[in-house]
Design goal:
The chain is built from four helices and no strands. With 104 residues, the protein is an all-alpha fold. The termini are far apart.
Length: 104
């Protein structure tokens, strides 16, 4: 039996999304933009150290999204990835300075 048929009462929250249409709320849009930025920056990391830093910032944004959305494990994992990316950016900048900008 469907929830709407059980006693004629409708569940709050669960069916709300279907009634509102296919639109995205602000939090979902923020999360989608953060993940898109992560993918783009990751794909372009070989071109410049700035993309590694951009990846770290996008991971921070994705972490914030995870915590705000209630998926704390996703938030923690993205926070760790942000730290890893910041470390990679730092190492790459030092290497670029030592070699005159030719890290490839």
């Amino acid at each position: 039996m469907w929830p709407a048929q059980a006693g004629g009462r409708r569940q709050e929250g669960g069916g709300r999304r279907a009634e509102e249409g296919a639109g995205m709320d602000a939090l979902t849009l923020f999360g989608a933009m953060a993940v898109t930025a992560m993918v783009v920056c990751y794909a372009l990391e070989a071109r410049a150290a700035g993309f590694v830093l951009g990846f770290a910032a996008a991971c921070l944004a994705a972490s914030l999204y995870g915590f705000l959305q209630g998926a704390w494990l996703f938030g923690v994992v993205e926070l760790i990835w942000s730290g890893v990316a910041l470390r990679r950016w730092s190492v790459r900048r030092m290497r670029d300075r030592a070699t005159g900008g030719t890290s490839q």
